[in-house]
Amino acid sequence: MEKDTSSILRNKNLLTRIAIVLLSFCWIGVSQSQIILDNSNLNTSVSDKAKKAEDPDYSSTIEEIIKSDDLNYSQIDKPLDIIDFTSSRWIIKFEVQNPGEARSLLFETARPITDRADLYEVDENKVVQRWNNGDMIPFDEKSKEHRKNLFKLDFEKGETKSFYLFLESDGEVINLPMIFWEKEKFYQTDYRNNLFHGFYFGVLALVVFIFFFFYLLLKEISFLYYILYVAFQFLLQFSLEGFTHQYFFPNQLYLTNASVLLSAAGTVFFVILYATSFLKIKERSKGWNNYFNYILLGLSIITVMVLIPGVTKAISYPIINLLSLVGTVSIIIAIFYFRRKGYAVNNAFSLGFIILIAGAVIFILGNLGVFGDANISQMSLKISSGLEILALSISMAGKYKELQEEKEKAQEKALENLETIVAQRTEKIEEQREKIEEQHKDMLDSIKYAQRIQGAILPTEEHVKEVIPESFIYYQPRDIVSGDFYFVENVTTKRGDKVSLFAAVDCTGHGVPGAFMSFLGNNYLMQSTKIDHINTTGEALDFLNQGIFKSLRIEEYVKRGVPIRDGMDLTLSGINHTAQKLYFSGAKNPILIITDAKNLEEWENVDAEKKIMTESIEEGKILIEVKGDRRPIGLYGKFSDEHFTTHVLPIHKGDLIYSYSDGYIDQFGGPRNKKFGTKRFKRLLLEICNSSMDEQYNKISNTLEEWKDGRENLDDILVMGVRV
């Protein structure tokens, strides 16, 4: 280039020379662009400030490159680049300048499923330092043990460093983020991502669990296909995020490498089986049935190809993406085809597949390089599959209704021909009765199994006695499983104070719906004890409230005009044994405290909404009802953004604290078949407050049984008593 430039300079006038010199400087400035570690380039991808070159036969070593770098580099033109399906080695060249103070950063690049991501720092034609990453090395040998490809880089003040990044793939797409993270910002982002992944994977696992019970109940094959589809969706996303390499196969590199393609093939295979079964394609159209069978055969062949390393596996990446795209889009076409033919297709089922396939198509097109932003394709499947759950759950309810309607039509037809075939129909009715009894038994067994699961999340008697030794819990579910549950846990404050937490929770409904709510409530309460920034009972209820809003998508439904009444009433109390204080927060429900009458003046000065009952002051006792906030968990409206109150209350040794749901006081009975009532309940507590906790339990139990006089429970019943 210097010879060409000097020749031009000799033959042009001064103006031309100046122009050429300026252009030369401009060209040099572009070709030697640096990554400047300032605010605009931190915590965001800066791939467009680097160059890339392809090494298809893996012939170049880092030593050869830095000695004589004659590779054909091209400037990357996107901040977040995508390299289409490739089995080549790609070499990324970049330079980093740190204009400010010395700093230590985390450099993130490539997807977690990239085979190799090796980084080299070079200076004066020699390798200063090297790092190794990727899912084709044992997890504990990665430069930083994290599911992502991370490198810890240190820069002195004003220092400039040069790097080469070697990326290797066996045929998969290579996404090329290049992010220089400030450590605190990275870990904050990673923490939020892990919370999202925990919730996302938890929802998928819960869907598998719930629909497994439907399958056991109905023996409908479409439910089994749906379960397998969701399970493979779980494995696919688990692999794409690098969790499979981290947790399942940290040292089994062959299995780690094959997991993405195998789970992708399984996902598409079973979603096609699920759709064809739900749409009854085999019975309705031989042509469509054969078409989908060919796609399934192709997926089966690709699955075998995945297991063969080398070229065979490399070409399976684009083929499986194309087959997945064709298969999923074909399902939508089939839905509209059968609608036009006059067949009834559940609207929620159609919507669920449109949402799912929209996300899947974006994901597959992203893998094919159509979308430039890799984040769009990576998040599409997660978001669409989450939205799909609601729609398909509704469609399954419609499926159940359809089965019931078919059964009713069969019964009507049987009645029309009763006179001529009474004996035959009697035999069939008997068979149906046996089938219904069998289904009822299956349902009862499933609910009893759910009871065992619910029992497992409740604190054991040993744990309760460890946390609150002087206590009793009177717990009577109306059905086999309950919407009421109790929570008992020890926590330690930042100052080292030991606090005994206990809660009495009344979820919306009872039976199976209430039990599902209790699973959510217990999970969020347990999470709240492990999060550093939650330090009060009110903050714990705020966390629970936000979790219920997100899990049930309450705001979304209310804005669409769908009435939502799902939530819970509860009291959460914490005894600080060091400070001799009681922390209390309530969602609609109050607590009752019985203390010595000498403490009356102290309680009159307490800043909390309360009622003091002095009927037993002559016996030396007073009863205080401390009210919680007047709204339940899960209420959407003008109180949605308000925080729950934390009351700090005085307690003394021997004081009694009672938490309860409304099942006891709302129970009908007595000579006039009236509610037991709050006043009668308070008087009962004052009568038994001097007894031992075991005697109090027996008195509360016996009193209610006498009151009911053989009547059934109207609601779940929960009463907790704790002596300080």
Helices, strands, pairings?
Layout: H1 2-11, H2 14-31, E1 35-36, E2 51-55, H3 62-67, E3 74-75, E4 81-83, E5 89-97, E6 103-109, E7 116-122, E8 127-131, E9 150-155, E10 160-168, E11 174-176, E12 178-182, H4 183-218, H5 221-240, H6 243-248, H7 253-278, H8 281-284, H9 286-306, H10 311-340, H11 347-367, H12 374-416, H13 422-457, H14 461-467, E13 471-476, E14 484-492, E15 498-507, H15 511-528, H16 537-552, H17 554-559, E16 568-576, E17 581-587, E18 591-596, H18 600-604, E19 610-613, E20 621-626, E21 647-650, E22 656-660, E23 668-669, E24 674-675, H19 678-688, H20 693-708, E25 717-723
Parallel strand pairs: 1-5
Antiparallel strand pairs: 2-3, 2-5, 4-11, 5-10, 6-9, 6-12, 7-8, 7-10, 13-25, 14-15, 15-16, 16-17, 17-21, 18-20, 18-22, 19-20, 22-25, 23-24
